[in-house]
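Reviewer 2 asked us to include a model.

Predict the structure of this chain.
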Amino acid sequence: MPGASLFRMEDGRLRPGLRAILFLALTLVLYYLTVGAFAVWPGALPGRSALVWVGIWRGVQLVILLIVSRFMVVWFDRRSFRTLGLWNYPGFARELAMGAALGSATVTAGAILLLASGRLVIVTWTDNWKETTVAAATGFLLVAIAASWEEILFRGYPFQRLIESLSPVASVAIFSTFFGLMHKSNPDATPLSVANTVIAGTFFAVAYLKTRGLWLPLGFHIAWNYVQGCLFSLPVSGIRMYRPAAILEWRPPVWLSGGGYGLEGSVVTTLLLAALTLWLVRTRRVSPSAAMREVLK
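Predicted model (structure tokens):
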């Protein structure tokens, strides 16, 4: 049995922190190898075409993440790919549904509060419900792909290995901060919107730690973006979905209404997400399934 060293563990495997860095390096290399192929496509497309383009690009990135994740888990961790927490173990559907219900309820509560306060005002409704319905249906696929990409990148392999290298608290702080900063360049972003994204990242990370699976945070993430962007016609992190059901007008102050960034730029979201995260940390009703505990032994 090989001995431990600065870079390797007693069993010869690279230390978890180094495996996390290797994962990110491989992902970055594959990203730049594929970005050239997409550079020949039109860079600015109108309406639905732009969203389809984003969906295709995010889909390619998602496939890259899954390939690299499987490679790292099997070859470097020497464990089952199921340890990533993204398989159909008993209870996964309940966790996915719970996440979707919490995400939908949180967005709905925030939207109702802002509409009731007059910070959001419905100016007009769409004149083409058929096209809006089609856009809402296709929008779900785009939202699911984008949310899955973010969850696997920020709550998947590198986050899970960093937990082993540092601690859960430090890992949550690091990855949630990066998650927030990644959205800093989005349209109409503000310091408050970045802070809210950090809190959202903390909730997603806690959701993983409570279940050791990715289904609960994934369900919340998809529902949050879909209900906000496709059903309530609000911008999602500053990005408006194509053919919204209604055109809304924001009233100042921006810190309350969210402005052009949407609900995620409002202090109402700060309070809702903070309260929900605190509840998730303290509740005993959410715990890993027996199947996940078994594969993680």
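Residues 40-47 have pLDDT under 50 and may be disordered. Strands lie at 120-125, 246-250. We have added this to the supplementary material.
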